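C-alpha cells please, single chain.
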Amino acid sequence: MAKTTKNWQTMKPIVINNFTGMNNVKQAEGAPNEPSIVLNSFVTPQGRILKKNGYTPFMSLLGAHSLWAGTVMLCVAENILYRVDSKTVIPLGSVSKNCPKMYYVEVDGKVYMSCKGWTGIYDIASETVTAWGLTIPEKPTVTGIDGDLPPGTYSICYTAIDANNQISGNSEIVQVSFENQTIGISLVRRPSDCLVWMTDTNGGEYYLVGNTNDISSITSVYNSIPLPSLDVIPPPRMTNLCLFAGRIWGIVGKKLYYSEAGVYEWFKNSNSFDEFYEVLVGVSVIDSGIYVHSKDTNWVLIGTDPLKMQKKRIGNGTITGTVIYTKMPELGQVPVWIGRKGLTIGGQQYVPESLTEEKVDIPFVDEGAGLALKQDGINQLLFTLKVSKNLDTELNDIFDENRLY
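Here you go.
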C-alpha cells in the first residue's frame, strides 16, 4: 500500500483568539493558547504575541559609558566627552581620568555634567563645553595710601566675573584697620576680570567698589550694590544629579548638596544635608519631595524649601545604579529602584511599594543599572545586576531550568 501524505498547503492554521502567556509549570501540555515555551517574542497587554525585532550594532566606540539622552545625546569614552548624532560621534573635550560614570541635568538650554573628578556645562546652542562655575580669586593684597576713608575696620574680598556677567563666590577676606586719620587702600596686583567688594566701616554687608576695569585703589565712598554670592563655592564634583524645586542636587559621599535657587553655578557648604551618616548612592524626585538612597537605608525629604524639609526614613536600601523613572497610571512620573524587597516604586505619598516581593526573589547586590523605555506604546523597565557567579539565587534556577513561576 502506497504511503499517503498531506499537502501542507491545504492544512488549516490553528487560530488563537487570545494568547494567555507561557506556562511550563504544568506537567502536561496546555492548550494552543498556552504553549510550554515562546522564544524571541513578547506579549502585549491585549494578549497579542509579537515577534521581537532584536538588535543591530549602532556604532563602535571603545570604552563607552554614561550614555544620556535629552535634547542631545552624550556619552564618555576613553576620558573624552562625545555627542552622539546620526550614528556619528563628535568629540567635545577631555574629562578627568577619575570619571567612571558621568551624571547629567538639562535645564535652560544647558547640560550640567558632573562625576567624581570633573564638572562642566555643555551649551546646546553654541555646542561648546565650559567650566561649571568660576574659579574663586586669590585673597587681596593691600597697602595704605592717601584717601578719604573714615577711620575704622574694613573687610575686602574679590569675586571673578565672566563675559556673561556671572560672578563667582568671594575670595578669602582681608581686613584693614586704622585710627585717627583718613586713608585710602591700594589693591596690589589686582587680578583682571574681577570685582572688588568692601564692607561698611567696622563691618556689615559687602558692597561693590568700582568695576572690573578702573579700580586699583579705594580712596573714598564706594557703590551700594550688595554682594549676592557671599560664601558661594564652585560646584562640588557630585554624582547622581537631579533637578528639583529650581535647584540642582547631587551627592558627594555622605552629603547631599543643592544649588542656590535658579542659579545653578552657585553652591555653598551650608547648602547641604549631611546628617545621613551613610554613603549615598542615589537621589530621585517626586512632586513634593526627594527620595535619598544609600545601600542600607532610604529616606524622603518632604517639601520644596531646603530649610523647611522634613527627613523621614522609609526603606532598607537601594542597589547602586538602579534608580530610574517611569510613568504610572494616576501617579505620573515616579522613581523606581531595586531594593531589598525587589523592584520598588517610590510613590507620591512617600510610601514605597514593592512590585515583585511576592513574585520573584531579586538578589540584593552592590551594583546594577536600569533603563526605562517605551516599545510600541508599551512602557518597559529593564534592569541588569552585577551578580557573582557563585551566588545561588532564584533567578539562576529560572535560567538553568527554563522555568518561570
